[in-house]
């Protein structure tokens, strides 16, 4: 027999705002919940916990902080209907609805047999391949940001932030506020020019006050710290030096500029992290996706989406729950995200042949030339090995899709994964698997 | 920061509660060594998605350095290349 903890009414995977909101809401409805989180503390990427004592020295969005503190208060009041399973990674699902968690504290794989599941595993950053983006010292903007949040210290050495969208702006401002302004913030898009050309998008991006106030705060910080915000400007090459990185950039007028830095943070948008998730429409155990893994709408909407997911689950399980509608906040978040996508839109540059596309196995753009006969995402995967590495295509599927489109083969990035999820999703030790028993 | 773990013979200090990855980065260890595909092991996404910072703690199976809390006295090395490297089909 499994222990009662491993047979909860609901398994929630992911301890960010969506997962925690879903979990406390379900507990409030009288259901038992096992909440699995891969880190040793709740928070996800957005609320990555500061390891120091007292409040974090890193500037954070006050609105999001209040939401999060309210959720943590509910976690501490949840009682024994809520079980936290920290440092535990979702690996996959056994054929008969048995969810496998790699409990890295106990060193064993634990089988969980819930009545329903909420997947709330967040988003994943999109980064366009550039020559040298695979070098040590190059991180995603989110990667540098969680380091900053976790340690409360700015990373060492000169920093350059580049790519596209609101997240690089947030990171640049947080670095500046921490006393470490980046050399520059390079934006591929031309949001100001686009705003003039598309006033509708500009208007929609300004309609919600909290995100607007946040953006104004970041802009003020960058101005005060003298961080240049260069739009229409992108990185064309990154080279390793004896110490640090040499980053070549080009602006809209074709002028190049070279930066010598210790850290380069790149970001070209956010995608829902859906690789390997059990499907919502599959027969059997009910599965509901929540938060950025369902649709990238940001932290505030993720809380609402988590609450909505809890209601969907309660309905399926026949548990009474108060009626509530989340359409309003989700709709306005969707409108904002669409407006931002329009304002920051910039065509993706074609990677030169030597560019690494697959960051796991070192496959290059030139590898596509050898795949000229490949007529389907299946062949590109099986013959070319794109999306077959350890990250399962999270960071190359989009680029592989773009390269294939140039060769006249059209498909969606997720088609590269094939129709069957490849479980386990993460590395797991043979000893932990051996310690697993389904009963 | 009194506690340390061992990275290839070097003592790396860390603060309680932080991951192996950020302690290594503070110690200027960005390059984690030779990894699959002729690339280098390195910190990239910080959320366990990219699998570029797989390390081994006390010789155990690979774990993401960005997810694994640092512990005093452990031996940390770059994880062995995955089996796919051994069976790599060269086009």
Describe the structure.
The complex is a heterodimer of chains A (439) and B (91). With 439 residues, chain A is α/β, with parallel strands linked by helices. Chain A folds into 3 domains: 4-124 and 272-318, FAD/NAD(P)-binding domain; 127-268, FAD/NAD(P)-binding domain; 356-417. Chain A has helices at 17-28, 62-76, 141-151, 166-177, 191-197, 199-205, 209-225, 299-317, 327-343, 377-382, 397-406, 430-434, and strands at residues 10-13, 33-36, 82-85, 88-94, 98-103, 108-112, 116-119, 123-125, 138-140, 159-163, 185-187, 229-231, 234-240, 245-250, 256-261, 263-267, 270-272, 287-289, 356-358, 363-364. In chain A, strands 3-2-1-7-18 form a 5-stranded parallel beta sheet, with helices on one face. In chain A, strands 9-16-10-11-12 form a 5-stranded parallel beta sheet. A 3-stranded antiparallel beta sheet of chain A has the order 4-5-6. In chain A, helix 1 (17-28) runs parallel beside helix 8 (299-317), helix 4 crosses helix 7 (209-225) and helix 6 packs across helix 9 (327-343). Chain B has one domain (3-86): 2Fe-2S iron-sulphur cluster binding domain, sarcosine oxidase, alpha subunit, N-terminal domain (Ubiquitin-like (UB roll), Roll), CATH 3.10.20.440. Chain B is built from 2 helices and 5 strands; from the N terminus they run ββαβββα. A 5-stranded mixed beta sheet of chain B has the order 2-1-5-3-4, with helices on one face. In chain B, a hairpin with a 5-residue loop joins strand 3 and strand 4. Chain B is globular, with a radius of gyration of 13 Å. The termini of chain B are far apart. The mean pLDDT of chain B is 89. The interface between A and B is large, with 59 and 47 residues.
């Amino acid at each position: 027999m499994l222990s009662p903890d491993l047979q909860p009414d609901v398994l929630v995977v992911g301890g960010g705002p969506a997962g925690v909101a879903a979990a406390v809401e379900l507990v409030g409805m009288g259901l038992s919940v096992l909440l699995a989180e891969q880190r040793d503390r709740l928070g996800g990427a957005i609320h990555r916990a500061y390891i120091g004592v007292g409040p974090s020295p890193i500037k954070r969005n006050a609105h999001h902080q209040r939401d999060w503190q309210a959720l943590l208060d509910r976690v501490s009041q949840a009682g024994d209907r809520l079980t936290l399973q920290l440092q535990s990674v979702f690996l996959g699902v056994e054929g008969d609805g048995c969810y496998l968690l790699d409990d890295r504290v106990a060193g064993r794989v634990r089988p969980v047999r819930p009545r329903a599941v909420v997947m709330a595993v967040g988003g994943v950053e999109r980064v366009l391949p550039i020559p040298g983006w695979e070098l040590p010292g190059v991180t995603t903007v989110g990667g540098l940001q969680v380091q900053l949040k976790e340690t409360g210290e700015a990373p060492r050495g000169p920093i350059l932030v580049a790519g596209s969208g609101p997240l690089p702006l947030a990171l640049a401002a947080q670095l500046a506020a921490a006393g470490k302004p980046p050399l520059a913030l390079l934006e591929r898009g031309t949001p100001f020019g686009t705003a003039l050309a598309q006033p509708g998008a500009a208007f929609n991006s300004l309609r919600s006050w909290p995100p607007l106030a946040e953006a104004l705060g970041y802009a003020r910080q960058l101005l005060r710290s003298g961080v240049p915000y260069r739009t229409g400007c992108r990185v064309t090459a990154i080279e390793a030096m004896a110490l640090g990185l040499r980053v070549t950039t080009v602006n809209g007028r074709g002028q190049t500029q070279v930066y010598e830095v210790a850290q380069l943070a790149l970001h070209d948008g956010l995608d829902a992290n859906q690789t390997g998730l059990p499907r919502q429409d599959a027969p059997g155990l009910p599965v509901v996706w929540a938060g950025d893994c369902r649709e990238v709408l940001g932290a505030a909407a993720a809380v609402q989406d988590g609450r909505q997911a809890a209601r969907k689950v309660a309905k399926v399980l026949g548990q009474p729950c108060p009626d509530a509608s989340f359409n309003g906040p989700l709709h306005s978040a969707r409108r904002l995200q669409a407006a931002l996508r329009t304002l920051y839109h910039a065509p993706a540059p074609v990677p030169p042949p030597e560019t690494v596309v697959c960051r796991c196995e070192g496959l290059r753009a030139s590898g596509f030339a050898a795949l000229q006969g490949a007529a389907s995402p299946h062949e590109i995967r099986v013959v070319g090995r794109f999306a077959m590495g350890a990250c399962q295509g999270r960071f190359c599927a989009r680029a592989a899709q773009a390269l294939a489109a140039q060769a006249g083969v059209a498909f969606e990035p997720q088609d590269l994964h094939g129709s069957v999820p490849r479980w386990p999703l993460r590395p797991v030790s043979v000893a932990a698997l051996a310690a697993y028993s389904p009963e | 920061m009194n506690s340390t773990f061992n990275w290839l013979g070097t003592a790396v200090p860390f603060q309680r509660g932080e991951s192996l990855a950020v302690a290594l980065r503070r110690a200027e260890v960005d390059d984690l060594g030779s990894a699959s595909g002729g690339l280098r092991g390195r910190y990239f996404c910080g959320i366990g998605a990219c699998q570029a910072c797989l390390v081994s703690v006390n010789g155990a199976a690979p774990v993401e350095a960005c997810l694994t809390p640092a512990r005093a006295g452990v031996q940390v090395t770059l994880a062995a290349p995955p089996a796919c490297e051994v069976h790599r089909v060269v086009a």
